[in-house]
Design goal:
This protein is mainly alpha-helical and 176 residues long. It is 40% helix and 6% strand.
């Protein structure tokens, strides 16, 4: 029971760390768990699930916070007639504080003006590899794939427009 408490406490300590810091600690924690006796096989099986949950949470948090930033950018554009030169320009008139990017050690999303982008700017997270890859997206264009543990060389770009998928049938209840 004491050993399980230690493992649980170790996971709790790393949950709120940026991915870059957490990634340095996770392998040691995973090794400790893998080296436990077979009596703790249920705990050992939970390691991939816990790591996967943390990555999914990073993806969700980044998406929600990026959406907030994109809305704030559009409010700024509507009020000033131009895009903000930097995210800090959103403070304090549009946002009291900038949302924290959950992956980067400095907690900042990357934003820059780019005329070639559909919205006139690019906004992204550095993704699972912890490196700024200049806004490179995964081959399938899905930003959430950039949070995978093995997603090297890609970022989670939120500002690129994607087509809305077609739906085969109207939503609703079947009368039968």
């Amino acid at each position: 029971e004491r050993m399980l408490d230690q493992i649980y406490d170790a996971w709790i300590e790393i949950v709120d760390l940026p991915l870059v810091e957490r990634a340095a600690i996770e392998p040691e924690l995973e090794t400790r768990i893998e080296n436990m006796s077979s009596r703790f096989s249920v705990v050992q099986m939970s390691v991939p699930a816990m790591s996967g949950w943390l990555r999914a949470q990073d993806s969700i948090d980044a998406s929600l916070r990026a959406t907030l930033l994109m809305l704030a950018i559009e409010v700024y554009r509507a009020e000033h007639g131009v895009l903000p030169a930097a995210l800090d320009d959103l403070k304090p008139t549009v946002l009291d504080d900038l949302p924290r990017e959950p992956v980067a050690a400095d907690g900042r999303f990357i934003y820059r003006l780019e005329n070639s982008e559909p919205l006139g700017y690019i906004l992204y997270s550095i993704g699972g590899d912890g490196l700024d890859d200049g806004g490179t997206t995964p081959a399938d264009g899905e930003w959430h794939d950039a949070f995978d543990r093995d997603a090297a060389g890609v970022d989670a770009v939120f500002s690129r427009l994607r087509p809305i998928p077609e739906v085969d049938a109207e939503p609703g209840f079947d009368d039968e």
